[in-house]
Amino acid sequence: MTTAVNPPGVRPQGCTNLKLRQLMRRVAQHYDTEMGKSGLKTTQYSLLSYVVRLGPIRPGALAQAMCMDASTLSRNLKPLIAAGWVELGAGGDARSRLVAATELGQAKRQQAQRHWRAAQEALNQALGPERVVALHAMVDDCMALLAPDESKDDE
C-alpha cells in the first residue's frame, strides 16, 4: 500500500469529515426516498441483503463483514427480527447463535431490491457512471489506507 503525496502547492481546505457527512446525507436521502416505498430503511435493506447473501452466519462475523460493531448490529437486527424477516437461531454449540433470513425476509429483500436498483440507476444518471466508478474506487482506496493496522495488535 502506498501513501498519498501532495503535489506541490496542493493543500486541502476545510473539514473532510464535514464534506463526507454532507455527501452521505444527500446520498442517504436519495436512497431513503426510494427505499421507503418498499417499507424498509436503506440500512435495513443493506443488513437484510448481507444476511440473505452470507447467512446463516454468526453475528460477530456478520458485524465484521459489514464493518460495524456488535452492539450496532444487535440494535439493527431487532426490527428485522420483529418483522419476521430475520431469525436468530442456535449455532453449532450452546453458546453460539446464527442469523438467517426467513422466507418472508428473502421475499422482502427481493421486493426492496427493485427500489434499490431504481435509486442506484437514478444516482448513476445524476452523477454519471464514470464519476460513480471513480467515487467507488476512491472510497475503496481510502478505506484501505485508513484500515486499522492489525500487525500492531501482535506487538
Automatic annotation (TrEMBL):
Transmembrane segments: none annotated. Gene3D superfamilies: Winged helix-like DNA-binding domain superfamily/Winged helix DNA-binding domain. GO terms for molecular function: DNA-binding transcription factor activity. It comes from the Bacteria. Residues 17-144 form the HTH marR-type domain. One of its GO terms (biological process) is response to stress. PANTHER family: TRANSCRIPTIONAL REGULATOR, MARR FAMILY, TRANSCRIPTIONAL REPRESSOR PROTEIN-RELATED. This is Winged helix-turn-helix transcriptional regulator. The lineage of its organism: Bacteria, Pseudomonadati, Pseudomonadota, Betaproteobacteria, Burkholderiales.
